[in-house]
Amino acid sequence: MLHRPRPVARRLIIAVPFLAALLLAMRYDRGPTGSAADAGRPGFTLRDATAEAGIRFVHQRPTFDPKISGVEPHVAALGASVSVTDFDSDGWPDLYFTNSRFGAPNALYRNRGDGTFADVAVSAGLADLNRPGDGVSMGAVWGDIDNDGREDVLVYRYGTLALFRNVDGHRFEDITAQAGLRRWMNSNSAIWLDYDRDGLLDLYVTAYFRDIDLWHLTSTRIMHDSFEFASNGGKNLLFRNLGGGRFADVTDKLGVGSTRWALAAASADFNGDGWPDIYLANDYGPEELYLNDQGKRFVLTAAGLESESKSGMSVTLGDAFNRGRLDAFVTNISERGYLFQNNNLRLNQMNEGGRFRNVAEGPIADAGWAWGAQFGDLNNDGANELFVANGFISADKDKSYWYAMSKVAGANGQFFEDAARWPPFGNASLSGYERSRVYINRGAAGWVDVAARVGVTDLYDGRAVALADLTNRGAVDVIVANQNQPAVLYRDAPDSANHWIAFHLIGTRSNRSAIGAEVVIESGDLRQRRVVDGGSGFASQNDRRPHFGLGQREWVDRVVIHWPSGAKQILARPEIDRIVTVKEPDR
Amino acid sequence: MSDAMHAPLVAQNIAVRSWQRARTLDSRYLIAFLITLVLVVAQLRYHMVGGYSRLALALGVCVATELVLSWFDRGKVANLLSAYVSGISLTLLTKPQGGALWPFVLGGFLAISSKYVVQYRGNHLWNPTNFAICALLLAAPSRVSVLSHQFGNDLTTNIVIWAFGLVIAARVGVLHITLTYLVSFLVLNGIRAAALGQAVLPELAPITGPMYQLFLFFMITDPRTVVRGRQRQIAVAVTIAVAEMLIRLGSDQGWPFPTAFNAAPPLMALALVGPVAKWIDLRRQR
């Protein structure tokens, strides 16, 4: 018979692996977040060039009805946005920042072409948009709504929408009322897309709070009624462009009126049927995918998104692993010891299984309280990097609202729907002073955060991130709008040995901005897809010129352009290391 | 008598017999039923589990550890219901950073092995799940957090789980512990809020959350770790509530606690008070 040790000895024997398990947990805590990838040489730097570029924009947060003063830091924590446009059609990308305090001007920075910018918002008529009665700006999206060759702009606010027609490349006129868009929406994002492929850009606007006037509240029951499955937010609206500068609300007819507290939207043809679909990142709820049924209606599709309820802050699209597909990266909230919602990197498998598959693990899963993010090839090596801005409220460093938040989050929805019942914020921080993340893509080995190594060390409360080649030199500069803080321009310096190519697309049958066009390049073993951006990330819009890094490859075999009209254009062996202008064939 | 007249009587007899049979069931089966109910509701309605691999790992490690250690320590395989309850509780309560699975492996092992390592007079002192969760929160706060899902903050789900929980607590004979803690929590935290000049409702609100449901129905009432005697059980429940109130008071005042105390006050209070009470109780046995 097997001899069994004495009881004390038995306990001591069991204690060995027991203590080892405790020590192992402590080691996991201190060790690097699990990624097998080695950053190696990032192959690029990002230098803060804000001051030398002449960008002096400082966002100012809004103030609201004193009835919700206890939670005002939370409610007023949005509004810093940046969008890229070439409003004067001079070939140099310009920048538009929104402000959010009554009387504080928005800024339109015209690119002088020499690396510096001049704020021309006042002369353009796009500065004074934060006024009592109209609301305060939360963001803007640019697109040529009348196909006249000049990009127009929609400003979404906590307040009324505002649509401006670009008159002559210098001045803008407010056409909101004529367009039928004077609607009060508490919105944090909008996108242009041509859902019916008629060559005119349509507009999808998401709503966060219901259509209440946050300065004249009749009730303090304005908050979400669940931290996971809230559907008492404002209603998203889809407006069809009728031509002649007029829009019609087709939300109910098309079935896209979600009320899930959407914070961000993006559009692309995810299932390859030729029609642009809509992807939503919702706060307090699961993401939503609306598949476009040939422009007649949208169908809310599960696609594997319904199984994870988090706090979607932004959604950006990119070909994460060069599969020729547009994947979605959705940011969420993580806070040490309290909450690990984890970001989602959802691989597009719509054609195989009708699903998106979340593969976010290791470093990219946790970027703190993450906001805007964008895919871009910052080192021109042929694989996308990810830039993620983060940090919610940076106030008193010694006071955190997380403990108070944990009381609220566990309560019944009926309780915290009333803003007056929340513990007052005071001067507490909530996931403040976080550093942005810059993830370098090492393919199957994973993603590695190289922010500090490449020069990104700011601790601002980042919101919107936009990417643009501001000097037309084949580099992806990063512009970050920070909440209640200065905007930052990071100048990208990619490895000079790497090649690149970018495309300036001009629609003819499609909308002239070519928004929604998808470009696939093939260069040896490299195959990558990008979409012309009609708005993505959080409150942001990228350069409309898709940029591809090529690494050491010295030619591109083939470029396939899928125009929003449905036309397919193939370019053979285009010249590289330049921005190639492509006009959509008439037939 | 016709068949039609018989039918209600037959149904009534079946119901009575079922209830009587339920009354004779081992209480551990009822607890296992309740945790299974919570799991099913949580997953089907709110997708709370976060991946079946987590459930499989936590359950598998708990059961395997119990099998091996009970055989090694006692020479026979223990009833596995306790491991089953621990595995499910861990799955529901543990929320890791990224897709990490190691917290479920280490958590499951720590939970069950704690019963064999930390003993006094042949009894374990900590509720296994409580020990594992607190150990993970203290040892690895950058990688592990506690339950963040809230059953959708939905009243109906709350009512269903509370109703089943209270009935089963009554059946198992621990209802007085649950109710004592509940009342103590409300009174003590009401007083704390009033003393600090805070609104009372936010301080009482957490009790409706699922972390408290798991705490009240599966941890503080764990038959193996509660003290003997109704009055002593009530006294210990009040003491745990006082400890939790003090932790919350410290958090309100910004005392430099480890994050685990701010994130999971009731779990930490039980982890501190429970073993001491059990140890005193066992000492008195002499």
Q: Notable features of this structure?
A:
heterodimer, A: 587 residues, mainly beta, B: mainly alpha, two-stranded antiparallel ribbon, 4 strands
Descriptive notes:
In chain A, 10% of the residues lie in helices and 36% in strands. Chain A has 587 residues and is mainly β. Chain A has a 5-stranded mixed beta sheet with strand order 5-4-3-2-37. In chain A, strands 6, 7, 8, 9 and 10 form a 5-stranded antiparallel beta sheet that branches. Chain A is globular and about 90 Å long. Helices cover 73% and strands 3% of the residues of chain B. Chain B contains 13 helices and 4 strands. In chain B, strand 2 and strand 3 (123-124) form a beta hairpin. The relative contact order of chain B is 0.11. At the A-B interface, helix 1, strand 21, strand 22, helix 7 and helix 8 of A face helix 3, helix 5, helix 6, helix 9 and helix 10 of B.
Q: Given the helix and strand composition of chain B, which structural class is it? A: mainly alpha
Tally of separate helices of chain A: 9
Q: Report the span from N to C terminus of chain A.
A: 89 Å
Please state the average pLDDT score of chain B. Answer: 88
Short characterization:
By secondary structure, chain A is mainly beta. In chain A, the strands form eleven sheets. Chain A has a five-stranded mixed sheet. In chain A, strands 6, 7, 8, 9 and 10 form a five-stranded antiparallel sheet that branches. Chain A has a four-stranded antiparallel sheet with strand order 1-33-32-31, with no helix packed on it.
